[in-house]
Amino acid sequence: MGRSKMGLLLACGVGMALFAGGCSEAEDEIPEPLDEASQSLALADRLAECAQDPRVVAGLVSQDICAGAGVFFHETFEGNGRTCGTCHPVANNTTLDVPFIQALDQTNPNDPLFVFRQVPELAELETSDLLDDAAILENVDGFADPTHRFVSRGVNHVLSLSTSIRADSGDGTTNPPTERTGWGGDGSSDGTLRGFLKDAITQHFPKRLAREPGVDFRLPTPEEEDVTLAFQLSLGRLNELDLASVRLFDAEAEDGRQAFMDPNRGRCNLCHHNAGANFQDTGNNRNFDTGTRTKGSPLNGGSFGGEFLADGGFGGRDLPAPNFDATGIGFPNSFGNGTFNPPPLIEAADTPPFFHNNLQINDKADPGLTDAVTFYASTPFLFSPAAQELEQRFGTPLNLVPLDANAIARFLRALNAAFNADIAKQRLDAARVLVDQFANTRADVQQKLMELARVEIDDAIEVMAPMTLYPAAAQQLDLARAEIAQGLAASSAVERRNRIVNATARVTTARAQFGQNITFVLGQGNLMY
């Protein structure tokens, strides 16, 4: 289904300024400006609610992180009904994929994610890529002519941001941002994760494509930005692994760890040091041109002067005309410099699709992690600037053989499943603390944590299943699921506690089978929803 079949509606351009907007006479009547007095109470109310939240009272979560989660998951900023959690749902690893969207469309077709189908003024807020490929429309190069000057990109998960957003100034990008956000590393107009909230509201929350602050949405207060930042930095893990000391108890996964680190086999560890997102030499996130932009992608693109507009990655904001040949056609057809920033890999198996353009290397035949790893044996990568830099550094071209690619994928699945198990245990431990302290008072919080623990267990099982990885651990996790189900159905706090303790023991037994020194420090944000 092309963009024209989604019910296109021409909207007025919003000019070159990020938040400025104008409207022609053909535009629908402008909504009344928002009531400024009512806006200032929202965060105070959230903080007051959080002061009574059992997780805060028990010392499991700080009041600011609790309030930040409230802003992230529940605040619409008086826009079109979307929240940050609309595209970053906690029960789907804070990202979107096709199965999740299809299931949501079947169960709740009026979810704000699909507001473009419900509000004529927003018919061009998304393209068919949202439903077909879990990709969203992004005006990363400025809001001038937003229905034409856009790219389609996958949704970044927001796990473990505290480990992955420090910008590396050694990558040759001009005016590098303070922090790497978005797939191009410049997703925030002010260069910070804190400022990203404004941009996300402007991009995804408007009532009209005119995007006029105070009319189509309200912008966050500085205090809301502060607590939302605190929450985001508390999600996922707060530390990096030391892969040199990690040992996997699965022989092929352990071989994959060695291949990952070996510059003559995988060369992965240089750009994804310790399976994170940072460059080995600096410990910071460095942009690269790996050739993903030249590989055929199913996603739509915008247009400029009637010509197709490709995704040029970093650095194209507010340029007057395309400046970069992103696809090798012989003339500029994109804004940017062709570089993108690496995401962390520990979370990768659980957060498909992959790359900025949700690229499937084998034409969707195998959209899993192994397929993504094999990209680095493909022609687009081997002829990319990043591959050439690696060849200069190590003296030989990369020769990633299928056996090593498969082992690396198995290794990454093992890390991801261990991460899932740890978050499941973190949530179960928190639920037990709350039962002990509050019994049946606010049992809903205990139950939700149990449900989200089960989601992580499901994810671990799903991550391991394609490669029959750790079958005994998978069996223990399945038993933990059963304990959680019985705990959710329990008629008393005592029985619920017993089931939580049993489930935790099962998860702990499973986790011990993965390996040694796979130690994650987890953030408080994992307990929020």
From TrEMBL:
SUPFAM superfamilies: Cytochrome c. PROSITE patterns: CYTC, PROKAR_LIPOPROTEIN. Keywords: Heme, Iron, Metal-binding, Signal. Residues 166-189 are annotated as: Disordered. Coiled coil: none annotated. Residues 166-178 have a biased composition (Polar residues). Residues 63-254, 251-439 form the Cytochrome c domain. It comes from the Bacteria. Residues 1-26 form the signal peptide. This is Cytochrome c domain-containing protein.
